[in-house]
């Protein structure tokens, strides 16, 4: 359902109805974030649909049904596994979604076949003991190159994320020979790419619950599992936009960096913070490019530079298929959230910190069809190249030129 409450009264009614119903929030993440004239996307169990229809009609709250049979859409993406042949890397299909095992095998294969550009390593283990693999992408030349970090799959159900990370690696390697921009980027920068950040949750979204979001850590007091890996960072931890309750989708965890996945990435970035100049996290969905702050309504000190980098990225993205992205500080463009990775990266000296919310704006939501992987990844690659290219130029904001402004 996509529901649009028109005023405060309708917001209160909707909050009450949805709280009692136990629905799965797609956008925004929780009841507390429902506001007048902002759309609310929820996935509702079959047994509750009639009741929700009735409530909304009775109160004259505006709504539409976007997908009437979610199961059918899910099966389109996971049902044909048997017909997909296990192929060699040269024939790896980048236009389908892949389970964790296939993504990890692909990483080994890229590492084996492209030693001059790719180096694979692990930064730790997940809660369930899976390795946390990262690909270093870039020409092996001088050791102290500037670097860009890109992670995908922080939230398990956002499958377009890992698809993008793989696509970007393929594009970089394949176009290195003929694309002067990509060649310059890989010669002068290292990209650290983590295709699946939340490995346990991603695996679970394939085997058990397609709409799982969190990690899979156990909680001693509650039966609910998992923590929102994008509320678990050590920056304004568990304040506005995060929940203390382990059963909520935005649960911040028992303490900052409680999740081994978050801890491992934070440790790696702290270790390399002199070289890592940009942090990019790939999410879905909303068609937005966000930067700090997430936790408060305020402009970051280097706002001019980051704003202009975002503008250039969104313009580059638009040039592919005319898809429009909104951009701006996460707090005002999307919603306030605390303990997020972009705020943490920014606070730890990475002055270019971005989160992409890829396609779409809600029609398919987390079930973006495989036919849209190619265009989505193609346009996003342009945006990421624009951000990375900007790092090679010195951004001179007016404040640098006129320090007294």
TrEMBL record:
Q: Which SUPFAM superfamilies match?
A: Protease propeptides/inhibitors, Zn-dependent exopeptidases
This entry's Gene Ontology molecular function terms read: metallocarboxypeptidase activity; zinc ion binding
Question: Which GO terms of type biological process are on file?
Answer: proteolysis
For the keyword Membrane, the answer is: no
Please report the name of this protein according to its UniProt entry.
Answer: Carboxypeptidase A6
Q: Does the keyword Zinc apply?
A: yes
Q: Where is the organism placed in the taxonomic lineage, from the top?
A: Eukaryota, Metazoa, Chordata, Craniata, Vertebrata
Keywords for this protein: Carboxypeptidase, Disulfide bond, Hydrolase, Metal-binding, Metalloprotease, Protease, Signal, Zinc
Task: Give start and end of each Peptidase M14 domain.
Answer: 96-391
Pfam families named among the record's database cross-references: Peptidase_M14 (PF00246), Propep_M14 (PF02244)
Q: Name one GO cellular component term.
A: extracellular space
| Cofactor(s) this protein cannot do without | Zn(2+)
Q: Which family does it belong to?
A: Belongs to the peptidase M14 family.
Q: Which residues are responsible for catalysis?
A: 357 (proton donor/acceptor)
InterPro entries xref list: CARBOXYPEPT_ZN_1, CARBOXYPEPT_ZN_2, M14A-like_propep, M14A_act_pep, Peptidase_M14
